[in-house]
Specification:
The structure holds 2 protein chains of 2 kinds.
Chain A lengths: L2 H16 L2 H26 L6 E7 L5 H10 L9 E6 L6 H12 L5 E5 L9 E5 L5 H22 L6 H7 L8 E3 L5 E3 L2 H35 L3 H5 L4 H37 L8 H4 L2 H28 L3 H20 L1 H6 L4 H6 L6 H11 L4 H29 L9 H10 L1
Parallel strand pairs in A: 1-2, 1-3
Antiparallel strand pairs in A: 3-4, 5-6
Helix pairs in contact in A: 1-9, 2-9, 3-5, 7-9, 7-11, 7-12, 7-15, 9-11, 9-16, 11-12, 11-15, 11-16, 16-17
Chain B lengths: L6 E11 L4 E11 L3 E5 L6 H8 L7 E6 L6 H4 L2 E4 L11 H11 L4 H14 L15 H13 L5 E5 L7 H16 L3 E6 L2 H7 L2 E6 L2 E7 H7 L4 E6 L12 E6 L4 E5 L5 H9 L4 E7 L3 H9 L1 H20 L5
Parallel strand pairs in B: 3-7, 3-8, 5-6, 6-7
Antiparallel strand pairs in B: 1-2, 1-4, 8-9, 10-12, 10-13, 11-12
Helix pairs in contact in B: 3-4, 3-5, 10-11
Classes of the chains: A alpha/beta, B alpha/beta.
Chain lengths: 428, 326
């Protein structure tokens, strides 16, 4: 075995993939899409068009209408322009004709929507808001708030309690709950569950996507060398082990180049998005994603990446065509997807026995350990043990895979059965 | 120890079995340095498996291989140029890049590999194709590039497995000249084929393999001497059916324009001449050396004859159909 030959194989593999247009597309496109999506969300939040929305209010109870109309009518944009233009209608016994007319006005964009309040305020379905754009969360929130305030006032009045509007507002003000994370050293930091969840998910995606993409690439690359019959030409100069190792090394470098580029883009971008984001949403990211967490992520990512790359390369040497490849890669992809599906369970029960056991199984380990680390940092010995187990597995799998590769690459014809594969590993 | 090695390749009693069948039963070969050595036999006889064991691509179940006196290793690989029967190149790479890569895998400096590749491409008439992609080349051109790739590192041993399969006669001839030139420059060549005629013209020494065993070996002249001058070419007008009934005759190959008669051991050609001349008007009567083809059939039996015919048919179908050989 010579390192220089492994290096030559790796370099060719690297050049071939980095030289492809598809590499540059996959390098540039995801961050661009990601950026655009986030920017659009921030923009749409910030730049809500300052146009007055016409609302019709039909209050058949006769108790809330005036209050709601006043509430919404007071609401103005920053510029001082009214947010709503409210049109009150008297209570009606039969609303069918009125609704037909109002529906027509909505469809013709004469009004934004109408709120229909039933005669009995405590009955289910008493409050109905008809509008064209139900995605306008800000408007529906405002309407809901106005109803809630008016309803509280009305319920108080029913109990002969009188209260000023200002008192009502201060009494019903929400308690802003802050979640604080206590880590294994007893250090307290701010960490909203939502933020942890999002960050975990992003980390898992950063693991999952490159593993899938480069796993499949590795498989195809071997399959292509097999079907173009170049394998035996190569084996006249390099040993199967050199070829196998070089291939994985080269592809790992391609993967790292891509992930590295993502990391740089997200770092550049995160500065900007933090300055743009609404207060409290992304500002605490530093408390959730500490340098330790980032370091552990890189370790688990690298190990998981190598483990799956090795498995996929071995599969590539066993199959003869795309159909067989799809068939044989299926179980491996399932193994990858499983932790993703169970994210919520793992995050909610980070130190339960089943989760701890699962996080020690090398094929699941990188993803599940990452989830555990994000929510409730596991004891260090568990982290060290899991890393040791993954490294041992990579070496074992590489050893077996190189043997499978040695026999598999020269086998054309039928797909090997499991007993045959075991025999290949034994005889090598 | 201290004795100069005279063999380029020494194979001792190798055996290789797969799941159900034995590919190579007990093969021993001694390929002297500097010659063109023919490894002959029908498809499936065990030629490719033997070569793969020489190349250390597969390991024998038992037996040993020596290349210039050493066990196969990365170092011995660098002294060998190998053109496998199953061959291909990276389709989307440029001709010169592929050659530079394959040359550097054999231990050449990248720049040197490019320089040599360029010289060779000029030599085989592909000077204008250096920067083109492999997929743009015709089959014959790709084959030449493939052949060049085995020569860049100036191998001491060149192993060619069915080098002419799928090639038209013009290209085949050009490649043949090239590798004879390499041989004259000192390289040992092992040439594996099922085509007895071409082997007969090119090889000094041969080993005939059938069903995983060497059934015949030695220099071509030795082999022919051993199998004697017991064939006669006959050309005459009329039906050849009577030939089989003559007492001297062991077998007849009727080629239409002429017939080749194999004589029984110890039979006198003179007797045959009298027998034939008394029945038909003879135009030609010539005592000839048997062809390798005939010797092979004599040694290996009628099954081998059929296997050989089948190999021939596959090769021809591949050539005319333009499809990849199996």
């Amino acid at each position: 075995m010579t390192l220089s030959k492994i290096w030559l194989v790796a370099r060719r593999e690297y050049k071939e993939h980095v030289g492809k247009k598809s590499f540059w597309i996959s390098l540039i496109l995801p961050p661009v899409i990601f950026t655009v999506v986030i920017l659009l969300q921030i923009m749409s939040f910030k730049a809500r068009p300052e146009e007055t929305r016409g609302l019709v209010l039909v209050d058949n109870s006769g108790k809330l209408g005036a209050e709601i109309a006043a509430d919404l009518g007071d609401d103005t944009f920053k510029s001082g322009k009214n947010q709503f233009q409210v049109e009150m209608r008297p209570p009606q016994a039969d609303t069918t004709a009125l609704m037909t007319d109002l529906n027509r006005r909505i469809s013709q964009s004469e009004i934004f929507g109408y709120l229909l309040i039933g005669p009995n305020l405590e009955a289910p379905g008493a409050y109905r808001f008809f509008l064209r754009n139900i995605g306008d969360a800000i408007t529906t929130d405002k309407v809901e708030d106005a109803i809630r305030r008016a309803l509280i006032g009305s319920r108080l009045a029913d109990r002969q309690l009188t209260i000023t509007r200002a008192d009502l507002d201060s009494i019903t003000k929400r308690a802003p709950l802050i979640t604080l994370k206590v880590d294994e050293k007893g250090k307290v930091s701010r960490g909203a569950f939502f933020l942890v969840y999002i960050a975990t998910f992003v980390f898992l995606m950063f693991m999952f996507m490159p593993i899938i993409a480069y796993g499949v690439t590795a498989l195809r690359s071997v399959l292509e060398e097999k079907s173009s019959r170049i394998i035996e030409v190569l084996l006249s100069s390099v040993t199967p082990f050199e070829l196998f190792t070089g291939k994985i090394g080269g592809l790992a470098l391609v993967g790292l180049t891509q992930v590295g580029a993502y990391v740089v883009t997200s770092l550049l971008f995160s500065g900007y998005s933090q300055s743009m984001a609404p207060p409290g949403s992304l500002k605490d990211i530093g408390a959730v994603v500490t340098p330790t967490v980032l370091g552990l992520f890189l370790i688990y990512f690298l190990l998981g990446f190598l483990l799956f790359l090795t498995i996929f390369t071995a599969i590539g040497s066993m199959v003869n065509n795309e159909q067989e490849a799809t068939h044989m890669q299926q179980p491996v992809i399932m193994m990858l997807v499983l932790p993703m599906y169970a994210t919520f369970f793992f995050i909610s029960n980070p130190d339960s026995t089943p989760v701890r056991i699962f996080s020690m199984i090398p094929i699941f380990s990188p993803m599940i350990m990452m989830m555990r680390i994000m929510v409730l940092t596991p004891p260090w010995w568990e982290i060290v043990l899991s890393i040791t187990l993954i490294i041992a597995t990579i070496l074992g799998v590489a050893w077996a895979a190189a043997r499978i590769f040695r026999v598999g690459v020269l086998m054309y014809g039928k797909r090997p059965t499991l007993p045959e594969i075991i025999k290949w590993v034994k005889t090598g | 120890m201290g004795v100069p090695v005279s063999s380029a390749v020494l194979v001792r009693n190798v055996r290789k079995a797969y799941d159900k069948h034995v590919a190579v039963e007990d093969v021993s070969l001694d390929v002297p340095k500097g010659i063109v050595f023919g490894l002959l036999g029908p498809n499936g006889a065990g030629k490719t498996t033997t070569i793969r064991m020489i190349m250390d691509i597969i390991r024998p179940d038992s037996g040993t291989v020596e290349i210039f006196g050493a066990a196969p290793s990365s170092t011995t690989l660098d002294t060998i140029g190998y053109l496998p029967e199953e061959r291909g190149l990276y389709k989307r790479m440029k001709v010169l890049d592929v050659l530079a890569y394959l040359g550097s895998l054999k231990g050449l400096e990248a720049a040197e590999a490019r320089r040599r590749a360029s010289t060779w491409l000029d030599k085989v008439g592909l000077e204008t194709w250096k920067e083109r992609k492999i997929e743009e080349l015709s089959k014959g051109m790709a084959q030449k590039v493939q052949f060049v790739s085995t020569l860049l590192h100036e191998p001491r041993l060149l192993i060619l497995d069915e080098p002419f399969s799928g090639l038209d006669p013009v290209n085949a001839n050009q490649l043949k000249d090239l590798f004879l030139e390499v041989n004259r420059a000192g390289a040992t060549i092992i040439f594996s084929t099922h085509m007895m005629e071409s082997a007969e013209k090119l090889c000094r020494q041969i080993a005939l393999i059938n069903k995983g065993r060497v059934v015949l070996e030695g220099s071509i002249s030795d082999v022919k001497r051993r199998y004697g001058r017991n064939n006669v070419l006959l050309e005459f007008d009329g039906d050849s059916g009577f030939l089989k009934s003559l007492p001297e005759v062991k077998g007849v190959d009727d080629y239409g324009a002429y017939s080749e008669v194999m004589l029984k051991d110890g039979a006198d050609p003179q007797g045959l001449l009298t027998g034939v001349a008394s029945r038909v008007k003879l135009r030609r009567f010539e005592i000839v050396e048997p062809t390798l083809h005939n010797i092979f059939i004599q040694v290996a039996g009628p099954d081998a004859a059929e296997a050989l015919m089948a190999s021939q048919a596959t090769a021809e179908a591949a050539l005319s159909g333009g499809g990849a050989p199996r």
